[in-house]
Fold this sequence. Notes:
Elements: H1 10-20, H2 33-36, E1 43-44, E2 54-62, E3 72-80, E4 109-113, H3 121-124, E5 140-144, H4 159-167, H5 174-195, H6 204-217, E6 223-228, H7 230-241, E7 246-252, H8 261-284, H9 296-312, E8 315-316, E9 322-323, H10 325-336, H11 342-355, H12 359-369, H13 383-393, H14 402-416, H15 421-424, E10 452-459, H16 466-475, E11 478-486, H17 495-507, E12 516-517
Helix pairs in contact: 4-5, 5-14, 6-7, 8-9, 9-11, 10-11, 10-12, 11-12
Amino acid sequence: MRGRTTVGAAGTAMALLALAVPALADGAQPDLTRFYAQRPVWGACTVKDAPQGMRCAELTVPIDYARPADGTIKLAVARIRAAGSGSGGTGTDAGPSGAAPEATAPKGSLVFNFGGPGESGLKDLGGFLADTEGLADQYDLVSFDPRGVGRSAPVRCGTAAEREIESSAPADDAEGHKQLVADLRSMAQECRKATGKLLPHVGTINASRDLDVLRQALGDEKLNYFGISYGTRLGAVYAAQFPHRTGRMVLDAVDSLTADAEQSALAQATAFQRGLDTFLSDCARQGAGCPLGATTAAATKTLDATVAQLDRQPARTASGAEFTSADLRTAITDSLYAEQLWPTLAYGISTLRDKGDPAALDRINKSFAGEDAQGRRAADDNSKEALLAVNCADEPKRPKDPAAELASLERKFAKASPMFGPDQVGAAVSCTGWPAGTDYIRRIDRTGAPPVLLIGTRGDPATPYQWAAETARRLGEGVVLTYEGEGHGGYTASRCVREHADAFLLDGTLPDEGTSCARQAPPEH
């Protein structure tokens, strides 16, 4: 178990900061005054199902911080005022001059990023309110759509390429490898054409600079921040670039700062396989109550038979679409993110096996993908395109021969995870056709920022537990709080985790080294 680590950081932090702040060709620093002088004008939100009291605004940020005259984009921001701010929690609009309202939350703003990359903060903020009741009196709760996402100059890849991103399947022979590589190159080209000059600047380095503009616009001397999954990468990069502007920072479901695309995909395949094994054994412990079988071996046999059944003959959804073994694996993957979905997953597999009915599993997939019953995403949902664009901007490595790389990795991935490895191997070459991204994130080491609270979930399938300790070492000073449970992230799953995280955010109290929270039974779904 990793606890607090404190390492001398001044020299490394200054070197990172010098690299992070862009300079012009003549060595002069660009003038960013007009961006830092903004004050948001809060008004009504047009987000579907926005909670009462949520107000929205836009900030202007440069496409390229090194060349701010080359163009700007609008950043969509949302805020829910603190109940203790004197606004009754309903928000206060700026006056005609655009000046920020005088009423302020006792502790200022707490800015959230909910992950992805590609998740919309405007859509997700309302869904997090029930879990942040302990913070709502003291903080304005704020989120935003990062650049390239949702309502903030979204990455687009053209209709054909977007369909390809959604439906691309793993290849299993030499010709299939070549075709996948060709498709990836074509997608990259279409994304460049459809998105334009923003695309090279959608990565996390620029998103963290936007975060600092947002901090200033909110009137906060330091950034208090809560990042989940990819949001932990964004928070770590912010701490590296702006260590002296970093306030209290909680990172839950911690991303790796050092793993390349292949290493990340392999670690995730291994973690998802471990999560699947736990799901099957947990179900079997119910005995006759497990619809898959009364022993782990029987439950595993039922699942394997269901996969084989779909490989022979796909099922049909209510809309008439095929439901394949790949769709079943997607439903399993989705369900491993949240333990409360496990009973639904077990029921769905059994009804598919016994009746050929994939309805329960199809609902899981559509819910996670943000799709309606016909499989259509909302017009402003570009999460899949943004995920690819941001990850490729953050990834410096490119395989010289992607097709050969696929062939060489297949056995390794299948050994790590018989269920998920073959699907995951394509992620190792997913940035084929994209220019090499930055290596800045790989070089983060001892930022000089204040201590950070990192939350690692022992059974997290998407951000494996070991990444929390690795990132703590990279940041230089932090405490890892362990949740001894399953699923992606600990804050919403565990009352104990919430109490520790809230104590840190409210009064700066970090848990002791080695603190862990027991697995908590999920609420009935």
